[in-house]
Amino acid sequence: MASKILTKNRLPAVVRRLKAQGKRIAFTNGTFDILHLGHVTYLQKARTFADVLIVGVNTDRSVKTYKDPNRPVNPQQDRIKVLTALACVDYAILFNDPTPLTLIQAIQPEVLVKGADWAIKDIVGAREVIAWGGKVKRIPLVKGRSSTRVIKILKLA
Predict the structure, then answer these.
(1) CATH of residue 15
(2) Which residues contact 112 (CB under 8 A, 6 or more apart)?
(3) Are 95 and 102 within 8 A, CB to CB?
(4) Is residue 111 within a helix (H) or strand (E), and if so which, with residue range?
């Protein structure tokens, strides 16, 4: 079986093949640092919206632009390998841009998924996905579960 980890070069061919097979694609993105129950629950739910789930994973460099400079805790190669070990994740791809818009435009998913903490008007790519007839789904977060919370607890230990 081909790797679940996509590259920019491999992405177009994989997307073309999936769409030719009539597969519906869901896309989501994030850091996914210190994988926890909230992440897994979110990804499992995201997978239920389509036949295939592709996850965009922020590179280490891009994470540092919007989180603490000491983040991520786990390097990008570890994070993407852990994610692709999950049965609910069909493919994952690293991205270095400030937003996943370029990836969303390249994939043209039928479903764009984000956490319910995001208003649809603030979700990058929502306007585009809706314009080509896709849907935007928001998933409630698991209360009290976050990588930031785990890091705070570890600092107290």
Answers:
(1) 3.40.50.620
(2) 26, 27, 28, 104, 123, 125, 126, 129, 134, 135, 136, 137
(3) yes
(4) strand 111-115
Q: pTM for this structure?
A: 0.91
Q: How far apart are the first and last CA of the chain?
A: 42
Q: Which of 64-68, 84-88, 92-96, 134-138 has the lowest mean pLDDT?
A: 64-68
- In the chain, the largest separation of any two C-alpha atoms, in whole Å, equals 52
Write the burial class of residue 134 (CB in 10 Å: 0-12 exposed, 13-18 middle, 19+ buried): buried
- In terms of residue numbers, what domain contains 108? 5-156
Q: How many domains does the chain have?
A: 1
Report the pLDDT value the prediction gives residue 144, as an integer from 0 to 100: 66
**For 52, phi and psi rounded to 5 degrees?**
-140, 140
Contact assessment for residue 105 and residue 86, using Cβ atoms and an 8 Å cutoff = no
Burial level of 106, CB count in 10 A (0-12/13-18/19+)? Answer: middle
User: For the segment 17-76, what is each residue's pLDDT rounded down to a tens digit?
Assistant: 999 999 999 999 999 998 889 999 999 999 999 999 999 999 999 988 877 787 898 999
